[in-house]
């Protein structure tokens, strides 16, 4: 698998104007896929594409990298729900903070959909708890509370590109990015099985294009780790997968994950159908490496 241009220190940096125009052209050529409900590129001829398959079928074979793969200092981590940033990127966050990168976190949804039938923890209280968990978990990883923002869109209903409220939500994301001007953005994987994750990708990508900025985009999987939800994804010829070595901060990440008691079955006991991260699922986020994807432009 070829290395991403972002990981090579010998490559010349792309011209910002031409790079922005290529991004804009690519976005204009995208279409809505009925299979995933997300934006995809138009199909690449089969002779030029990798075989359709599961990106995470053999994650341990992906190339292992260090922080040199993240070569820009102002970093924004986008989390569809409170906890996704720690599960998917906790190791990266800890490493980046330790090396002095300026890390900010944007949480898209309010997180109130995890336990809709709880009487003890109605939506306003659950929202507050999940925000407090996020602040505490990110504090363990090195992020200050004033670097964390909550967009508080409705959990389970983050607007997709076909939603009437998409442009309003995009404007919120645009304002945030305009204020933070990130060099690197971590996004949920564009084809994640969860609709809120796909919608979050769409919102940020649309906001980036509207601003004409050219950040490094790094995508992280969450629900693709669940083999029951994985789907084969076509047109992978321009997607590079790699692993980030987080062995040195793994204990820190595990400690941060443990803060999310509301999602670990340790707090809310009156909603038997409520969400709970299984031990099996958690093993995917406690390895000594994290998986990331980048599209080669």
Quickly give the CATH architecture: 3-Layer(aba) Sandwich
As an assembly, this protein is: single chain
- Rg calc: 18 Å
Number of extended strands: 10
Main sheet strand line-up: 6-5-4-7-8
Domains counted in the coordinates: how many?
1
State the low-pLDDT regions, or none: 1-24, 26-53
What is the terminal separation in angstroms?
Answer: 15 Å
Return the CATH class.
Alpha Beta
Produce the secondary structure layout.
Elements: H1 16-28, E1 31-33, E2 38-40, E3 64-65, E4 74-79, H2 84-98, E5 102-109, H3 123-141, E6 148-153, H4 166-180, E7 184-188, H5 195-211, E8 216-220, E9 239-245, H6 250-257, H7 279-282, E10 289-295
Parallel strand pairs: 3-9, 4-5, 4-7, 5-6, 7-8
Antiparallel strand pairs: 1-2, 9-10
Explain the overall architecture.
The chain is an alpha/beta fold and 297 residues long. The protein has a single domain (72-295), classed as Rossmann fold (3-Layer(aba) Sandwich), CATH 3.40.50.10320. The chain is built from 7 helices and 10 strands. The chain has helices at 16-28, 84-98, 123-141, 166-180, 195-211, 250-257, 279-282, and strands spanning 31-33, 38-40, 64-65, 74-79, 102-109, 148-153, 184-188, 216-220, 239-245, 289-295. Strands 6-5-4-7-8 form a 5-stranded parallel sheet, sandwiched between helices. A 3-stranded mixed sheet has the order 3-9-10. A two-stranded antiparallel ribbon has the order 1-2. 38% of the residues are buried. Residues 1-24 and 26-53 have low confidence and may be disordered.
């Amino acid at each position: 698998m070829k290395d991403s241009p972002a990981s090579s220190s010998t490559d010349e940096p792309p011209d910002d104007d031409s790079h922005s125009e290529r991004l804009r052209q690519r976005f204009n050529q995208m279409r809505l896929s009925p299979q995933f409900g997300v934006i995809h590129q138009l199909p690449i001829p089969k002779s030029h594409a990798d075989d359709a398959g599961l990106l995470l079928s053999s994650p341990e074979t992906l190339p292992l990298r260090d922080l040199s793969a993240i070569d820009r200092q102002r970093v924004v981590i986008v989390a569809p729900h409170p906890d996704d940033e720690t599960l998917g990127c906790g190791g990266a966050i800890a490493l980046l903070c330790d090396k002095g990168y300026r890390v900010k976190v944007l949480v898209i949804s309010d997180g109130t959909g995890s336990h809709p039938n709880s009487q003890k923890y109605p939506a306003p209280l659950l929202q507050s708890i999940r925000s407090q968990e996020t602040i505490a978990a990110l504090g363990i990883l090195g992020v200050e509370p004033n670097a964390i923002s909550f967009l508080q869109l409705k959990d389970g209903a983050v607007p997709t590109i076909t939603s009437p409220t998409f442009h309003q939500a995009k404007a919120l994301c645009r304002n945030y990015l305009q204020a933070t001007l990130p060099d690197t953005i971590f996004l949920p994987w564009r084809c994640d099985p969860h609709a809120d994750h796909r919608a979050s990708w769409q919102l940020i990508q649309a906001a980036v294009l509207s601003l004409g900025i050219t950040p490094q985009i790094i995508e992280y999987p969450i629900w693709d780790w669940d083999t029951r939800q994985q789907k084969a994804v076509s047109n992978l010829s321009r997607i590079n997968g790699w692993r980030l070595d987080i062995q040195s901060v793994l204990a820190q990440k595990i400690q941060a994950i443990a803060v999310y008691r509301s999602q670990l079955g340790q707090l809310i006991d009156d909603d038997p159908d409520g969400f709970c991260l299984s031990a099996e699922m958690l093993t995917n986020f406690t390895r000594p490496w994290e998986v990331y994807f980048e599209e080669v432009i």
